[in-house]
Amino acid sequence: MMRKTGIGNGKNKKVLSAKEAAEYLCLPLSTFYRLAKKSVIKGYRLGGRVCFRFEDIDDYRKNGTSSDPRDLSLFEVRGVNKTSADNRKSPRINTKIKTNITLPLRGSACGGEIKDISAGGLRFELPAPNGVLINDPIEFKFTLDGPGEVPLNVKGRVVYASDRVIGVAFRQLDEKSKEEIARYVG
């Protein structure tokens, strides 16, 4: 239940509890608390409680950041948007793999290009602006070049979304897919 309070630059700003904000973002409460603790999502003390401005939560859902430009994006916290490849959790390789994605929650599909891939995820570019949101489930079907060319069915979640580019963290990889991606990335 949203409440109105005087938090922020003006009066009557809508705020959410942590539970309400986590539900709005479709995140487990523990994940939401972790993001808040790392200041990825900005919280405010209101009496003895911590509240979250609806505007910040909505901006995070749309862009992966809060409305305060000084806050870190989810990519920066996870170390994905570093300038040096040495800071990544796993090696990433640039590629140009044409494929289609499926957005199960929306019942839609579209084409585009995988721009880079690692054992943990990939970056995908769409030919036109999209409405993909942070935490949306997503599915890919593609084949990596090389011996055997095994078709992969990969499921993940969107961890970054801009106008035409999305970052995806793999969530459900079978052993064959893990091995094939590891072989491809080297």
Question: In brief, what are we looking at here?
Answer:
With 186 residues, the chain is α+β, with helices and mostly antiparallel strands. It has five helices and ten strands. It folds into two domains: 70 residues, Multidrug-efflux Transporter Regulator, Chain: A, Domain 2 (Orthogonal Bundle); 101 residues, predicted glycosyltransferase like domains (Thrombin, subunit H), CATH 2.40.10.
Q: State the order of secondary-structure elements, H for helix, E for strand.
A: EEHHEEHHEEEEEEH
Mean pLDDT: 75
Strand content: 35-45%
Number of domains: 2
The strand count comes to 10
Would you tell me which CATH topology of the largest domain applies? Answer: Thrombin, subunit H
**Overall CATH architecture of the largest domain:** Beta Barrel
Query: What characteristic shape results from the CA principal axes?
Result: elongated
SSE map:
Layout: E1 3-5, E2 13-16, H1 18-25, H2 29-37, E3 44-46, E4 49-53, H3 54-63, H4 74-78, E5 92-103, E6 108-118, E7 121-125, E8 137-143, E9 151-161, E10 165-172, H5 175-185
Antiparallel strand pairs: 1-2, 2-4, 3-4, 5-6, 5-8, 6-7, 7-10, 8-9, 9-10
Helix pairs in contact: 1-2
